[in-house]
């Protein structure tokens, strides 16, 4: 589901190359949102028909595509799932940009209706058709929020002591508390609750991958032909921070940091994303409870990222008022051992792959619409006040940075 998108397209090719029989369901809404916003990928993205025909000519393998809106066309979705009877459904099909979800009521309502119904329709169809399907969902690290107050972020669950009348009465493992920072992140929290219920009630086997911000563009498979090239979004709605910095540096503009730049986030390279998804598929859970993995390989503050790109390209750095409502700075200590235990080989930012991104930005800079780089909406209509961080800083013991293969 969502196999035409930034993560879904290279994953579809990777799974097909690994001898899996892949079908894509995608209503091409991401391409339509580009039309609505007057934006487009920096890299020239071929039509889905051209992409699939090229893949067939290169690999000999057929990937079928069905244009179904999985949030609206329940019957078509359920019938197709019954016909194909897949072992696994990988679910990317959600509106995924936090800024877009904060643009106005139309986009807020669309994001909730689309994402919540998409997830619920898949769960409902699996139950209605009485199929044993492993659902792998792309969630986000953003569900945990960025106020970790000095403790490490575990993989989905935390153990809590229940205190009654001043005495500890029991210890329980519960879903990690959720602190969404946008309407988009709120829908990912609602997904978590639905997964909890459908696993408990119907024993659906579910893996929820709490993914960091994905960087990079191409993978081994999309490199095989220019028609297979992946998206590169640089605009203020869909372009993630690293892409925006790379675009600004390619154009000779300063790198613009929102707020202090102390906001720390988790990251993962697109090659690692597809590797994680394959590992989750090849090692399905038993279904006792929803399996949650943190899918990230390193953490960086926005300022660190800007300095990194600046060192690589010589670009200057500028600070702007932050349109978002978020702590001015935070630490982020993420536990993400499970996927590495299954065999993930982390790729880090300091490497040749980042230079490849710089050259993509330079190669296609003539396609860039400069007016779209800083078009993120404010999180609130009234002037945004910076939220003081409650975060205490503490020495990190288990950072990704020092556990990465450089
Ligand atoms: N890109 C990131 O940095 C990142 C980080 C964390 C999590 N994620 C999650 O990974 C998933 C994929 O992200 P992406 O960057 O590939 O997004 P994307 O927007 O590029 O891809 C999503 C795809 O789903 C399709 N889609 C959306 N709603 C649909 C519907 N109702 N019916 C059918 N198809 C529909 C879109 O057309 C698009 O092709 C998302 O769920 C996102 O929340 C992404």
Task: Give a structural overview.
This protein starts with 7 loop residues before the first helix and ends in a 43-residue tail after the last helix. Strand 5 (157-164) and strand 6 (167-175) form a beta hairpin. With 406 residues, the chain is of the alpha/beta class. The model is unreliable at 386-406 (pLDDT under 50). The chain is built from twelve helices and 13 strands. It has one domain: Rossmann fold (3-Layer(aba) Sandwich), CATH 3.40.50.720. Helix 1 (8-17) packs across helix 9 (270-282), helix 4 packs parallel to helix 6 and helix 6 runs parallel beside helix 7. The strands form five sheets. It has a four-stranded parallel β-sheet with strand order 3-4-7-11, sandwiched between helices. Strands 8-10-12 form a three-stranded mixed β-sheet. A two-stranded parallel sheet has the order 1-2. The longest helix is centred in the first third of the chain and has 24 residues, at 105-128. The radius of gyration is 21 Å and the shape is globular. 35% of the residues lie in helices and 17% in strands. The structure holds nicotinamide-adenine-dinucleotide.
Question: Which features does this protein show?
Answer:
13 strands, Rossmann fold, 406 residues, 12 helices, binds nicotinamide-adenine-dinucleotide, globular, 35% helix, disordered C terminus, three-stranded mixed beta sheet, alpha/beta
């Amino acid at each position: 589901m969502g196999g035409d998108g930034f993560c879904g397209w290279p994953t579809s090719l990777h799974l097909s190359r690994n001898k899996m029989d892949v079908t894509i369901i995608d209503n091409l809404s991401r391409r339509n949102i580009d039309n609505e916003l007057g934006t487009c990928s920096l890299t020239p993205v071929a039509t889905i028909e051209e992409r699939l025909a090229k893949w067939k000519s290169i690999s000999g393998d057929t990937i079928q595509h069905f244009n179904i809106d999985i949030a609206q066309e329940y019957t078509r979705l359920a019938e197709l799932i019954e016909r194909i009877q897949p072992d696994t459904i990988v679910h990317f099909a959600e509106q995924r940009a936090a800024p877009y979800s904060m643009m106005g009521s139309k986009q807020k309502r669309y994001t909730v209706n689309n994402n919540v119904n998409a997830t619920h329709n898949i769960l409902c169809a699996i139950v209605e058709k009485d199929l044993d399907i492993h659902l792998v969902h792309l969630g986000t690290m953003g569900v945990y929020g960025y106020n970790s107050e000095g403790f490490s972020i575990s993989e989905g669950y935390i153990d809590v002591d229940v205190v009654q009348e001043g005495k500890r009465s029991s210890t329980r493992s519960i879903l990690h508390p959720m602190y969404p920072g946008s309407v988009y992140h709120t829908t990912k929290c609602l997904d978590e609750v639905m997964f909890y219920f459908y696993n408990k009630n119907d024993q659906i086997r579910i893996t929820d991958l709490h993914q960091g911000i994905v960087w990079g563009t191409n993978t081994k498979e999309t490199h095989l032909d220019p028609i297979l090239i992946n998206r590169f979004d640089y605009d203020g709605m869909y372009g993630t921070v690293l892409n925006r910095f790379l675009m600004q540096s390619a154009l000779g503009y300063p790198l613009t940091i929102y707020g202090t730049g102390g906001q720390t986030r988790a990251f993962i390279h697109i090659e690692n994303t597809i590797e994680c998804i394959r590992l989750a598929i090849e090692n399905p859970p038993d279904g006792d409870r929803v399996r949650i993995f943190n899918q990230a390989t390193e953490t960086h503050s926005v300022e660190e990222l800007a300095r990194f790109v600046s060192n690589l390209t010589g670009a200057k750095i500028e600070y702007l008022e932050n349109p978002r409502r978020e702590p001015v700075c935070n630490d982020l200590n993420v536990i993400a051992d499970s996927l590495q235990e299954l065999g993930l080989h982390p790729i880090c930012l300091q490497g040749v792959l980042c230079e490849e991104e710089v050259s993509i930005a330079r190669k296609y800079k003539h396609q860039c619409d400069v007016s779209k780089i800083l078009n993120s909406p404010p999180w609130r209509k009234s002037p945004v006040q910076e939220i003081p961080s409650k975060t205490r800083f503490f020495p990190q013991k288990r950072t990704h940075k020092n556990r990465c293969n450089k």
